[in-house]
Amino acid sequence: MSTSTDTTAAGTAAGTAVTGIGRLFRAVAIAEACSWVGLLIGMFFKYVVVHDQIGVKIFGPIHGALFVLYVIVALLAARRLRWSAGTLVLALFSSIPPLMTVWFERRAARQGKLQTP
Prior knowledge:
Blueprint (H helix, E strand, L loop, with lengths): L3 H12 L5 H29 L4 H27 L4 H9 L6 H11 L7
């Protein structure tokens, strides 16, 4: 026996399923946000707790590499998924504030922008 709630939940889940470049974009967006968290924790320890640079030395290069990867994957996704210029600008801007890549990825998934047209 199926209810309308079951159908709605299934439709929502199907509407946000991604494959290919959309899945890669999602993974890189989440990884970039996690590297931001690591870098922020490293900076907290460097400037507040122990005045040691080890956290920044570890997470700085990781975050830098993931930032560049995010920009490249966003450009590829924009081309393959036919994003508008506004969507691309928002994706690129989202790489600057901490954790905003996850916000953008969730928004794009909800709007179906991570699915092949």
